[in-house]
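From the shared-data thread, chain only:
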Amino acid sequence: MNKLLFKLKHAGFTELKILLVLILVVAGSWIFIQLAGSVNKGSSDNFDRLAIELIGKSNTIINQQWLNMVMEDLTALGSGTVILLLTIAVSGYYLFHKDYKAFWLILIAVAGGIILSFTLKEIFARERPSQIISLISVDSYSFPSGHSMMSAVIYLSLAALIARIQPTRRIKIYVLSLALVLTFLIGISRIYLGVHYPTDVLAGWSIGLVWALLCWLAAYFANRIKGVNNE
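Structure, as tokens:
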């Protein structure tokens, strides 16, 4: 009887979790569509321009070399090199442990995210901010922010994989919160360094979250179907 109650309670919690994920997917998609529409129409230009100019003035006033170095270190955590190394290391770990679900989740999430990021950049072809001198050199298009998007994809995916094996909800929340904070800081660093508008970063966060959640849902339902077929 206790086992039956536990299964029913677990099933209810799982359905609630899936519903929450679907709500986040819809919300993230809506935010990205709104941002993309604003950028395409140019209605976000004034906001972006004012924000960039304000950041440029703040950088001049603060003039702290240590803060510039911190931001450069943070932005490196979302670079292609770091993402690639993390992907190889983590996917290799799960491959050795024969956890093929996690292995394919990481590979598909990262590879698909990279393709989606480059595709969206080419579609919108938005130029980088020119109002201030950027602290680093970048020559690709600006919308959406690839660093923001890929940091959301890789760090949230890793957090989800780590959280699923944690014994308590408190640790799960801690791991997911840590991934969210890291993703947030990487996005902020892109604005601070003068290589992205705020709307670029917001769009990167939203579409990165959506893609990570869709990959998680696909892996979850694939696992459920496999479980049903094995019964």
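Helices lie at 2-41, 45-62, 65-76, 80-96, 100-124, 146-163, 169-192, 198-230.
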